[in-house]
Amino acid sequence: MKTITYQAIGSVSRAANGGKSAPVEQIRGVKTHALLFGLDADVTIVGAAGGTVNAESTQRLIDLITIRENGIVRAEITGRMLAYLTSRAQKQAANIGVLAGAGAQANTLLHADFVVDWASIFAADPAETAFVELDGRYPTTVEVTWAASAEAALISGTGLTLNSASLGISQMYDSSSKLMPFFLPRIRRTTSKAIAGVQAAFSIPLLPERQNRVESIVLHSLVDNVSSTAILTGQVTLRGDRVRYIDAVDRRTLLNEQRRFFDAPVPALSYLELHQRTYGKLSEMYVGNQDENFRVEAHVTGSGVTALIDAFLLEKEVVPGYTRAIPEGW
């Protein structure tokens, strides 16, 4: 018998100056399909000119979510990446309350929901990738690092006070199924060097675990770690030293390929996902040790300030004794 359970596992509040939360422990000894996050904020806008509402809004309150197991980082997810992963599965829930561009608003309540599905968006079976603890002696923890300048995260200009913010964390799991997943999930984050001016072959090294499969690579462009923007401006190549997996394809073509499946959150042009897998095939994924110096080479345009590209590798990990064998021909 298979039973899916939703269970709240904790809530973390933002301190006045941001910083890290105390870790929240996941329920142990279960097969976790997804983590759900509910973000609540109470804000006050004062004065006649409240500033301009930032397009990304609430997710910018979160700097980083880190999931650790026995000291090993299983996933690093920025607030923007959290919104992106949500867009792969569903439309983000509308905020309760709307920030106006001008005028006073006292104690306006905002709420947004996010989800991290560990399974592939192409999976016929959502249990194909699930989180299972490797060692029951060590808890798996979720840690939240809040943005230090939260007022600037929500609204550009002056006149906003963030009274409070909290993030509720829930776990979607199955404790009864004896069928183990094919893969354990891993989200690995790397950041490019600073981008200045126009460059025709800007290189971003990608460093997957050598035995892991790479399902996709998500590139997110931002300036000064504040504003998401379109830095990729021309052709994109995904390659190793031996093989070119994407060979000088226009960014717009790749973006439209991504949109066959879902739309990225606003501003959409700052995100680009390079899929390594289609139509559910488990074999259609790059394996970390099949090539050397795995990297993205792209036409980019910096803006004269600190322009960066965050690269997130969505990896699938096989661990003997914890994952089942992949059937031949899949």
What's the CATH superfamily of the largest domain, by name? Viral coat protein p3
Bin the strand percentage: over 45%
Question: Tally of extended strands?
Answer: 21
- Which oligomerization state do the chains in this entry correspond to? single chain
How many structural domains can be distinguished in the coordinates? 2
Indicate the low-confidence ranges by residue numbers: 93-97
Residue share in helix:
under 10%
**Whole-number mean pLDDT:** 84
Q: Largest sheet at a glance?
A: 6 strands, antiparallel
CATH class of the largest domain: Mainly Beta
What's the end-to-end separation, in Å?
26 Å
H/E element string?
EEEEEEEHEEHEEEEEEEEHEEEE
In one word, what is the shape?
globular
Q: How many whole angstroms does the radius of gyration measure?
A: 20 Å
Kindly name the structural category: mainly beta
By DSSP (H or I, 4+ residues per run), the number of helices equals 3
User: Based on the structure given, which CATH architecture of the largest domain is correct?
Assistant: Distorted Sandwich
Fold-level CATH name of the largest domain: Adenovirus Type 2 Hexon, domain 4
Tell me about this structure.
- It is a single chain.
- The protein is mostly beta strands and 330 residues long.
- It folds into two domains: 8-174, Viral coat protein p3 (Adenovirus Type 2 Hexon, domain 4), CATH 2.70.9; 184-317, Jelly Rolls (Sandwich).
- The protein has helices spanning 79-89, 150-154, 251-259; strands at 4-13, 19-20, 24-25, 31-45, 52-53, 62-69, 72-77, 105-117, 140-146, 155-156, 160-174, 184-191, 198-205, 213-223, 227-228, 232-239, 244-250, 271-275, 286-287, 295-301, 307-317.
- Strands 12, 14, 15, 18, 19 and 21 form a six-stranded antiparallel β-sheet that branches. Strands 2, 3, 6, 7 and 9 form a five-stranded antiparallel β-sheet that branches. A four-stranded antiparallel β-sheet has the order 1-11-4-8.
- The longest helix has 11 residues, at 79-89.
- The chain is globular.
